[in-house]
Amino acid sequence: MQTKANATKNRILDCARSEFLSAGFAKASLRRIAAQAEVTTGAIYRYFPDKRALFTAATEEAVTQFEKLMAGMSDETVLAAGEGVSFGPRDSRENMATFYGMIYEYFDQFYLLLMCGDETGGRSFLHEFVKVEEESTLAYIGALKKHYGSDYEVDEVALHFLLEAYVSALLEPVRHRMSRKDAILHAQNLSVYFSVGWLGMERLLRGESEESLIP
């Protein structure tokens, strides 16, 4: 059963999300949030020390679900790589469908993280996403190298650039507020382009030359 205090806090969070969506972080007004939630600004400060803390709480569910999903996907692919099972286009499509399912369940929160996160003074969601992908991909590559006994060295700077492009492309449906159906179609196209590159890298890890990958 929800207590009165929890009900008030949740009402403040709902109104805060609405205000951040309409005004952005910088121009969002605690007074307007308080008025919409039918509380005083003092009541907001009892739960949240400042506007940044309120924004963090208003997007916390999305961040928690994101971290949980990405950790699970990483563990699964690294475990498979350790057994020599590569991550192919079909796996990529399935993971993207799962990813967008999570995104659209908490769409407004992810939109806020992406469009307003930089304004809070914290690290951007895009930056954090790239960092997670980079750590996961390097772990995946490490597992494949160990399995194949490969001494191929991946250019980590180039990998970072590629992952930035990949993550940015993944988040375009959020930026443009695309429908879930259109986002899935977008994901299917992305899986074709990016999976070809990953499969080429795996050939290098198996000992093939870079020249052999050039048509």
TrEMBL record:
GO MF entries: DNA-binding transcription factor activity; transcription cis-regulatory region binding
Organism: Blautia liquoris
Keywords, sorted A to Z: DNA-binding, Transcription, Transcription regulation
InterPro entries tied to this protein: DNA-bd_HTH_TetR-type_CS, Homeodomain-like_sf, HTH-type_TetR-like_transc_reg, HTH_TetR
Protein name: TetR/AcrR family transcriptional regulator
Domain HTH tetR-type intervals: 6-66
Source taxon at top rank: Bacteria
The UniProt record lists the keyword Transferase: no
Lineage, top ranks: Bacteria, Bacillati, Bacillota, Clostridia, Lachnospirales
Record-annotated DNA-binding residue ranges: 29-48
Pfam families (alphabetical): TetR_N
